[in-house]
Amino acid sequence: MEKPATEVIKGDGWGRFPDDLEYHSGFGNHFESEAIAGSLPRGQNSPLICPFGLYAEQISGTSFTSPRKLSQRSWFYRIKPSVTHEPFWPREPSHKKLVSEFDGSNTVANPTQLRWKPVDIPDSPTDFIDGLYTICGAGSSFLRHGFAIHMYTANKSMDNCAFCNADGDFLVVPQQGRLWITTECGRLQVSPGEIVVLPQGFRFVVDLPDGPSRGYVAEVFGTHFQLPDLGPIGANGLAASRDFLAPTAWFEDCPRPGFTIIQKFGGELFNARQDFSPFNVVAWHGNYVPYKAKADGFLPGGASLHSCMTPHGPDTKTYEATVARGNEAGPHKITDTMAFMFESCLMPRTCPWALDSHFRDLDYYQCWIGLKSHFSHDKTDVKSNDLQNGNKSG
């Protein structure tokens, strides 16, 4: 059934999302979706003439020579092709706090445990792009190896523009405020307690239906997020494939004068103008798609960084309260909170603005200083060293 474009258009942002958004279920599945019946070609990917006069376009998440089991790509059938835009030029003013190449020229190696308090929402109008800033990372998007950890604070929806990350995949964890995310494959509503993965190369818009929003972003270069092997925890442990939801086809067909594509390329931002919405994909099929996963609730919080081989663990207050209960401690359920961790085997370098931030907790180390020794033993159990000190028989 055709969905009228006027259903979602308003002056600022992309309008209301329906409460009953439909999703495909599964992780890494090959989906197919069409917003108008018959708009998806049958039996071939790129016919000479596509249904309804659409353009066939492929987006590739892996190389053409990748083994079949690793191949990720999707076919779009869109009203106008995405190549129809003016040349890119550097975005002004430039974004000074996005990093995709981590070396001694722009970041610092620091093994100290670091922690930041929650960052304030900005007073001036700031959307997801302008509110995105890098905390730390390793490697290089140019070399297709490594990662970056970002945070974002925003108070307005993106207006007449879309973002495209050519460097890697974004995994976004909203901590405050829902996100309405429009992609070329369709729409996703992402609430605190959920995650969303926006793969490399997809164009998307972030709307803020609840006003100010804050959250975390993990970015990987040269690879894609995968579900871990289950191993000894068994076939039903961790996240199940059915917990991941992909959008269904939805499109917009209307003029968008002065519409801007903002592309992140090597950590720098570039603009290109076009006169139509990039969300004009009437049908698609493939396994390279944006997706979200459901999880438990999440309350406001800051962030911490514990680098490779740097010790960390329970703070003094938590540990002392636990051992004070002795053998009667037993299990204790922690409610109304959630913590998550981005983990990597690579050693991160930290951005100077993160180290110098007035939100950094300079007294973080104090939470462990009070840990005292609880070691005790019966001295009669200590074996004598006398035999070791005696004369040896010949």
TrEMBL record:
EC number in record: 1.13.11.5
Molecular function, one GO term: metal ion binding
Positions annotated to bind homogentisate: 312
- What does the UniProt keyword field contain? Dioxygenase, Iron, Metal-binding, Oxidoreductase
Which cofactor does the UniProt annotation name? Fe cation
Query: Where's the Homogentisate 1,2-dioxygenase N-terminal domain?
Result: 22-292
GO CC annotation? cytoplasm
Database matches in Pfam families: HgmA_N (PF20510)
Under CDD domains, the record lists: cupin_HGO_N (cd07000)
Q: Which residues bind Fe cation?
A: 312
This protein's record includes keyword Translocase: no
Q: Its annotated pathway?
A: Amino-acid degradation; L-phenylalanine degradation; acetoacetate and fumarate from L-phenylalanine: step 4/6
Give the UniProt record's GO annotations in the biological process aspect: L-phenylalanine catabolic process; tyrosine metabolic process
User: Record keywords: Metal-binding included?
Assistant: yes
Query: According to its UniProt record, which protein family does this protein belong to?
Result: Belongs to the homogentisate dioxygenase family.
Q: What is this protein called?
A: homogentisate 1,2-dioxygenase
The lineage, from the top, is: Eukaryota, Viridiplantae, Streptophyta, Embryophyta, Tracheophyta
